Amino acid sequence: MGQFNEMYQGAAVRPPYARLEDWLAAMPQELRSLKQAEAEALFRRIGITFAVYGEGGDPDRLIPFDMFPRVFSAAEWAKLEKGIKQRARALNAFLVDVYGRGEIIRAGRIPARLVYQNEAYEKAVAGFVPPRGVYSHIVGVDIVRTGPDEFFVLEDNCRTPSGVSYMLESREIMMRMFPELFRENRIEPVDGYSEKLRRTLASVAPKKCKGEPVVVILTPGHFNSAYYEHSLLADLMGVELVEGQDLFVDGEYCWMRTTEGPRRVDVIYRRIDDSYVDPLCFRPDSMLGIPGLMDVYRSGGVSICSAPGAGVADDKAVYTYVPEMVRFYLGEEPILNNVPTWQCGKADDLKYVLDQLPDLVVKEVHGSGGYGMLVGPKSSREEVERFRAKIVENPGNYIAQPTLALSSVPTFVEEGVAPRHVDLRPYCLVGERIELVPGGLTRVALREGSLVVNSSQGGGVKDTWVLAE
Amino acid sequence: MLSRTADNLYWIARYMERADTVARLLEVGSRITLLPSAHGYRSEWDSLLQATGMAESFAGKYGDPVQRNIESFLFFDRDNPSSVASCFTSARENGRIVRTALTTQVWDALNTAFQELKVLERLPRSELELSRLTEWVMRHAAMVRGSIDATLLRNDGYNFLNIGYYLERGDNTARLMDVKYYVLLPRVDFVGSGLDNYQWTTLLRAMGAQRAFHWAYGGEVTAPKIADFLILNPQSPRSLATCSAGLVNHMGRVAKAYGRDTAAQDKARVLLAEIEGATVEAIFEEGLHEYLTRFIAEVATLAHAIHETYLSGEMR
After folding, report:
1. Which of A40-44, A133-137, A316-320, B161-165 has the lowest mean pLDDT?
2. Cβ contact B161:B12 at 8 Å
3. Whole-angstrom Cα distance, residue A255 to residue A194?
4. For labelling alongside A219, which of A7, A124, A271, A417 has CA 20 to 30 A away?
5. Is A453 found in the same domain as A379?
6. CB of A159 within 8 A of CB of A306?
């Protein structure tokens, strides 16, 4: 498989990157080092620290920032945008369905066991339809590219996709350091994100809410690796950043504790897991969460975003069926394709996977962050064999995909500039409207040849540009 | 604002002010020990610990109050919640939680103090002179305080910061004065002697108030003048009168903004009225130590009322 370079086609430069060639040529090594140091100092100063959902690690860690932007043309983005919105609609329709009548299961399009026996399926919300029928208000769709027109969805994040602060801050820093780039290129702005997010959250206020809804962000606290992001979003939206202890239930409503007494809360954008939302409902042993919140939620006293139970749609085993959801609920053909996926739980698939193991990527169904996975072509024979034993032991726990030749983008490295592999996570907002800011989080595998973009495994980030028409 | 946010701001102020006082205490202590004739009596360092209420936790960990251990305990020891290291770390952590309620300048000041602390902690103790350490603390405390005053919006958050500052400072001034009581207690005949005056001067110096005192009073340093300066004089920046007036002012602003006067405001006003009605003679008649002990208790009651009313989120 040939590898797709997003900037260069042989000696020719692809149009979206046209002006960057001059920019690069006009930047001597000394200036580059100076700018790189400046970028790092800016990140440190604003105190941005970051880890993609579930990756853990040092909360004060800086993720490497690469100054070479990743660029999409207006036409490329238009297609991506349509595909992402389509997917977000289908995923939400699926969630409403599986907590309702379960038509897709009755129709035999997805196995009942995958849904109802899924750990992420919340029986506590069965039969409840959240405001506007939206379960997942922020859908993070991880996308990889293998050619000019070949985009694939790697996974969906329907719960609390993180990283959007990097989209916002990378842009701020690039505009501060290279204003001339923004004069020469017509780059769509991304700073409308916080306003759109606020509007989205306000649009799903519960039915008992009268007047302007009070929105809050619920964080696990300042020890959480994404705390910076939570506080940035709260600040940009002008809403309170609360912890579980700041909220309580009284009567039919949820309240926050303020210096002026209790204040009613209408919409909670939670950045905590389902299991910590309400100890009475999910984890009697937990001290975290807000006792009684689920009763208020189910009686329309408060909205929770994303809705409890949304996780069943982004499970890696359910993922395989998303194109089917698009056809079933929307009557459309999927614009964005899945990566072909074999489920080791199926006998035929397992046989194929074990035969082709050195050529495949194998992942745990519930894993994330690039841990517990095998990249066949990059692994030694012993590593492949060790993994084979793990698959045989518990086949249902694994899925396999072909090793994709991820596209690459020029990246500043020790020796100068070299292509490195990238992926993309745009953030689709679903409320009264479905919206997408033109941009997203581009993660880059800084190690030569590496396909793993996770920040815990040597990944960095780039500013993502969408050019205006 | 969220009660927890107000609480975080209030504690940033209290921890910064406390670190400042602990540094000043170290200064007082080391200067008192430089006085040869004080030896042979009750250890001055022990007096210092008694006055701050930290004697027991110190004895439990270190035993005898020798200077090096006291320095460790008051400056570096993370087990001691009032050590400079603990205070700077807690203030910075509280600041990180409410990062968006602070300006970049305030955050920079808090963060810089913390980062430099980490550097200091790695240096060998032999390279760290006490006077350098105490100066360093006071400089950073002043930088945080200054950036708050220069850059922060005058909203309720600003008032809660100031309430924290004045409360802690009033309490700390009372405790610093009380060190004198513990040092002198065993030898009443010292009162009015040259030694007595030396100790009072040391106390003034530790509070950075020696020159201000001379401007305000002139002449001999006497106990009544000092008590007047540190308790009753509204011009003195650390006096109990100044701190109480600051509390009344900022709590009044909160009450006005929220359109509700509470029992906490009442308590603050009573505290100020008592000081404004007091005389030096009456204080010495009651006994300076007794007076200060009573003041410290009243400040604690006020702190409790502030917590209940605004910071706990229990107000319905």
Report:
1. A40-44
2. yes
3. 24
4. A124
5. no
6. yes
Contacts for A42-49: CB closer than 8 Å, 24+ residues apart: A42/A173, A42/A176, A42/A177, A43/A169, A43/A173, A45/B104, A45/B108, A46/A169, A47/A228, A47/B96, A47/B99, A47/B107, A47/B111, A48/A165, A48/A166, A48/A169, A48/A228, A48/A232, A49/A225, A49/A227, A49/A228
Determine the distance in angstroms separating the CA of B136 from the nearest CA of chain A, rounded to an integer: 22
Distance from CA of A329 to the nearest CA of B (A): 43
Bigger pLDDT: A435 vs B25: A435
The pLDDT assigned to B314 comes to: 78
pLDDT tens column, A443-461 = 999 888 888 777 667 789 9
B294 CA to centre of own chain: 16
Which of A214, A259, A268 to mutate to probe the B interface, most B CBs <10 Å?
A259
Q: Which residue of A has its CA nearest to B93?
A: A222
What distance in Å separates the CA atoms of residue A226 and residue A52, rounded to the nearest whole number?
8
Give the strand pairing for A8-9 and A12-13.
antiparallel
Backbone φ and ψ for A102, nearest 5 degrees, come out as 70, 40
Axis-axis angle for helices B288-306, B240-258 (nearest 10): 20
* Domain end call among A378, A402, A426: A402
Same domain (yes/no): A217, A364: no
Backbone angles phi, psi at A30, to 5 degrees: -65, -45
pLDDT in tens, B57-82: 898 999 888 888 888 999 999 999 99
Establish if A209 belongs to a structural domain: yes
Domain assignment present for residue B79? The answer is yes
Q: Are residues A351 and A222 in the same domain?
A: no
Residue A247 backbone class (left: φ over 0; alpha: ψ -120 to 50; beta: rest)? beta
Please report whether residue B102 resides in a domain: yes
- State the number of CA atoms in the 13 A half-sphere of A251 facing the CB: 6
Structural domain count of chain B: 1
Shared domain check, A115 and A29: yes
A2 domain-assigned: no
Residues facing residue A150 across a β-bridge: A147
Query: Which residue intervals of B217-279 are DSSP H helices?
Result: 223-227, 240-258, 263-276
Residue A54, pLDDT above cutoff 60: no
Query: Are the CB atoms for A188 and A467 separated by under 8 Å?
Result: yes
Q: What is the pLDDT of residue A137?
A: 98
Cβ-based contacts of A262 with chain B (< 8 Å): 313, 316
Residues A247 and A349 in one domain: no
- Asked if the Cβ–Cβ distance from B96 to A222 is below 8 Å, we say yes
Determine contact, residues B176/B28, Cβ cutoff 8 Å: yes
Q: Judge if A78 and A222 occupy the same domain.
A: yes
User: For residue B18, what pLDDT is reported?
Assistant: 95
Of A359, A377, A402, the last residue of a domain is A402
Domain that holds residue B122: 3-311
- Chain A: nearest CA to B54, how far in angstroms? 30
Q: How many structural domains compose chain A? A: 2
Strand order in the sheet with A261-265: A247-250, A253-258, A261-265
- CATH code for position A360: 3.30.1490.270
Domain containing A365: what range? Answer: 340-402
Task: Examine residue A96 and state whether it is found in any structural domain, yes or no.
Answer: yes
pLDDT of A51 > 50? The answer is no
Is the CB of residue A57 less than 8 Å from the CB of residue A370? Answer: no
Cβ neighbours of A261 in B, within 8 Å: 315-316
On whether residue B7 sits in a domain, the answer given is yes
**Whether residue A423 sits in one domain with residue A398:** no
Which residues of A fall within a CB distance of 8 Å from B104?
A: 45
Residue A3 is assigned to a structural domain of this protein = no
CA atoms within 13 A on the CB side of B20: 26
